[in-house]
Amino acid sequence: MPTTRIIRTREWTDPVAPVRREVRHVDVLRDEGKPPLLFVPGFGHGAWVFAEHWLERAAERGFPAYAVSPRGHGASTAAPGTGLRAYVHDVVQTAAGLPRQAVLVGHGAGALLVTHALARYPARAAVLAAPALGGWTLLGAALRRNPVGTLPAVFGRPLRLRANQLFSRELPEALAASYVDRLGRASARAQWQLLFAGRTEPAVGDPPVLVLGSPDDRVVPAAALDRAARRYGGAPLLFPGMGHDLMLDARWVEPIDAILDWLDKGTA
Fold it and tell me: What CATH fold (topology level) applies to the domain 9-267?
């Protein structure tokens, strides 16, 4: 039977430095008692990627919606040289400050942060969207599809993602280009840690976990989606024809409505 660690010595011998975190929030018009959702973006993305569409949609459906930019992302404090541990700390601290027990929704590498946060925060449920959970399969796929943007990251330079990796052809080119221009960079240390990410500790309370993505994702291969879903005892919910950035792509409403439908069924 899996056990949960109660004491993490490093947390008090080497605490994570505090920073100013950007948190975007859209509240509901009428409180129906539904759990708040905390959206966690992937590397280079910030809270703004959820503020474009998903926060409003969640609030319309009765879910108080929040999105956090981990340090070094969005409008949060710059943090060169930081690693996954500090990013996870930002997620846990933000979730702990919400008015009710939250559902954690991570996208891309943000899904990896959520899997780590689940061992420290008793979430109502979790959603892993296009989860980049690390490993050489992820690197191999990235090198095949975008060698120019990926190879420098192997040597400590910033990872550069292209519009055709992130979005489907349905999204207008000008809009896709504007989104790419807004992307930032994760630290080189965090990029390396993503590659070597091992299995995470068991989640506190064994919350339900939904995995979803696109079989046409040019960042996270379909095999990685299947593997992530099997880890949590299910199969991935798929959205063919969409790109990696589900929350910004032309058909963004489909995945968020599926997430909210899953939660409305009493999962959380």
Answer: Rossmann fold (3.40.50)
